[in-house]
């Protein structure tokens, strides 16, 4: 019988001095890739907080966007592109009257219908652009999917400032466009998918579709490491990973910056369309099949797990898995170092998309 007094809690719950580089759970391959960029140590605290002036928040977000864009490009430089993928660009008009750029990737020379993926990129709904996920969309298309990437409006960065619900409205408009062109695009089904902030938008797009009686447009949702809680400057004890993995790749000040720009003043603090963590059983009942994936060393891990359990409690066909040894989106960002995890991620999204066939 285990004596509870001898059990050491994981991560910073057991040792508040730990960093990703000293946490014994960390995959050494990921650490070797991250170390030259300083991503293996505690994330730096930003010089802003939720109550900072908007101009200061926006300036900090723009600087963070520029830094992350450069680092992500360097991390993914070693991931070879898949040949035999055609790319086109479409411009559509959103429900707010704004222009939305869509990037369409599809396998060359294919006949018959293929699964469709509506991809929503990460960045906390506040920074980064669709091109940062171009390599990921290329991989998915190379495995036999038609992938539509959405250049939605951000709450900050070069495409901001457009707080909630602007970005979500753009994702919903892109979904409608894709649904209306199933025949033209040659797609059999539509799975909404995204990572981090894109995971939030994927889940929220489904919730919004249910509220608006538009669920016929969605055949499944695949959310990776979703950013869905919002209260990162006031952690919920029900989400111990926020403390266990604090500062591992992303810190609470970065997450709070994104949340503050997306939801200024916290006016939508418990609205599940802004923060799906707060979805009720009534919100979730009747949704299409979902997959929620999380990472062992991610501060966001437990909010994703909580959403998965809520889906299952509501009777939704939902499953998920945890990538051990890596931090936030490590199976994607550290693809060059952990190709086995990256390949599993690609194969799993594609397999889910094929499994939703009507």
From TrEMBL:
* Gene3D superfamilies in alphabetical order: alpha/beta hydrolase (3.40.50.1820)
Region entry Disordered, spans: 1-24
Q: Which SUPFAM superfamilies match?
A: alpha/beta-Hydrolases
Q: Name one Pfam family in it.
A: Abhydrolase_3
The molecular function terms in GO held by this entry are: hydrolase activity
Q: Which UniProt keywords apply?
A: Hydrolase
The residues the entry assigns to the signal sequence are none
Q: In terms of domain of life, where is this protein from?
A: Bacteria
Which parts of the sequence belong to the Alpha/beta hydrolase fold-3 domain? Answer: 117-329
Family annotation (InterPro entries) = AB_hydrolase_3, AB_hydrolase_fold, GDXG_lipolytic_enzyme
In its UniProt entry, what is this protein called? Esterase
């Amino acid at each position: 019988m285990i004596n509870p007094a001898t059990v050491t809690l994981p991560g910073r719950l057991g040792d508040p001095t730990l960093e990703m580089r000293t946490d014994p759970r960390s995959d050494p391959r990921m650490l070797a890739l991250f170390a030259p960029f300083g991503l293996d140590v505690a994330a730096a605290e930003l010089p802003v907080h939720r109550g900072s002036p908007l101009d200061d928040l926006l300036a900090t977000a723009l600087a963070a966007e520029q830094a992350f864009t450069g680092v992500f490009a360097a991390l993914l430089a070693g991931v070879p592109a898949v040949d035999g993928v055609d790319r086109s660009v479409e411009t559509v008009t959103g429900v707010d009257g704004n222009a939305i750029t869509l990037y369409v990737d599809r396998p060359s020379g294919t006949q018959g219908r293929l699964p469709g993926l509506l991809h929503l990129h990460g960045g906390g709904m506040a920074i980064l652009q669709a091109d940062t996920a171009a390599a990921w969309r290329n991989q998915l298309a190379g495995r036999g999917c038609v992938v539509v990437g959405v250049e939605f409006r951000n709450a900050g960065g070069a495409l901001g400032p457009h707080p909630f619900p602007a970005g979500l409205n753009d994702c919903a408009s892109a979904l409608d466009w894709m649904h209306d062109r199933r025949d033209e695009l040659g797609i059999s089904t539509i799975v909404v998918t995204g990572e981090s902030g894109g995971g939030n938008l994927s889940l929220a797009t489904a919730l919004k579709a249910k509220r608006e009686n538009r669920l016929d447009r969605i055949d499944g949702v695949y959310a990776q490491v979703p950013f869905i809680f919002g209260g990162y400057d006031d952690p919920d004890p029900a989400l111990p990973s926020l403390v266990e993995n604090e500062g591992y790749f992303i810190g609470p000040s970065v997450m709070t910056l994104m949340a503050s720009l997306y939801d200024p003043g916290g006016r939508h603090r418990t609205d599940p369309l802004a923060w799906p963590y707060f979805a009720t059983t009534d919100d979730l009942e009747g949704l299409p099949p979902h997959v929620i994936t999380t990472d062992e060393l991610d501060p966001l891990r437990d909010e994703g797990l909580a959403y998965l359990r809520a889906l299952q409690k509501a009777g939704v066909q939902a499953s998920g898995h945890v990538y051990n040894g890596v931090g936030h989106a490590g199976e994607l960002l550290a693809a060059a170092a952990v190709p086995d995890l990256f390949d599993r991620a690609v194969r799993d999204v594609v397999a889910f998309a094929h499994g939703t066939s009507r």
